[in-house]
Each structure stands twice: as C-alpha cells, then as structure tokens.
Design brief:
Blueprint: E1 2-8, E2 14-23, E3 26-35, E4 41-44, H1 53-70, E5 78-82
Antiparallel strand pairs: 1-2, 1-5, 2-3, 3-4
C-alpha cells in the first residue's frame, strides 16, 4: 500500500519521485520514474533487488492510479499526494 508520494515535476517527458510504501509491514521509501505519454508508464527503482517483481508491479499500478486521480502530471513543481 502506498502511503505518501512526492513527485518532482518538470517540462520534460520523464519525471522522478519517491513514495513511502508499506512493504511487508514496514514503511519503506522507494524511488520511481514516470514517463508521460499517451499512457503513463511507471518504473519502480530497485525492481528485482530491493523490491520484488510482484511488489514493484503492484506499486506501479497504485502509483499510476494515484497520479491519474490527482492529475499530477498536469502541474509543475514539487508536491506531496497523500494516498488516503
């Protein structure tokens, strides 16, 4: 489950961010990249190493849903999305 998200926005096609997630009962900070295009693509860093493939795929879907819900890529700046 994602708890908080911070995205650094710019005018390029690739954005970077951090998220606080519940990973096996512990709060963990993960990094991710967002590729803006026809369909938003999210790539979680540390995939297959720090974060399992299964968890990374789940976080990517949750992040994509949150970003769409809040229209995050339509804004410029740095801000936090609360997942609750």
């Amino acid at each position: 489950m994602i708890k908080k998200v911070s995205i650094k926005l710019s005018h390029s096609l690739i954005y970077g961010g951090l998220a606080i997630v519940d990973l096996h009962g512990e709060d963990e900070c993960i990094d991710f990249d967002v590729l803006k295009g026809q369909d938003i693509q999210i790539l979680v860093g540390g995939r297959g190493k720090r974060v399992s493939e299964h968890d990374a795929a789940r976080f990517e879907k949750e992040l994509r849903d949150l970003i769409r819900k809040h229209g995050a890529l339509d804004k410029t700046g740095t801000y936090i999305i609360t997942a609750s």
